[in-house]
Input
Amino acid sequence: MKTQFKIFTAFLFFAFFSLTASAQKKIQTDTLSVTGVCEMCEKRIEKAAFIRGVKLTEWDKEAQRLTVTYKTKRTNMDEIATAVAQAGHDNGKKKAPKEAYAKLPDCCAYRDGVKVH
Output
């Protein structure tokens, strides 16, 4: 009887911990190439990428690279890339629509030859 109780207790213990481990939210960090030229672009890109499920965004102007930390159960890189493109910035996955790009200030017109500043 004691052996059965110990086996049952061990089973419950492992079942509980395996369920809690699988219930944890998976956090992932990825990078995405995003075109921009200035600090205004940086703010716009980081704000656009900060959609539901995103924990952290950081755009490097010199490297033209966005680093995003997000919950994989809430969002994915395709959704983040779409949000950034809708804000007017071409990226490695999506090109910004003409209407969104046209709304950018002149200093942010990266397609028109404006250099990183």
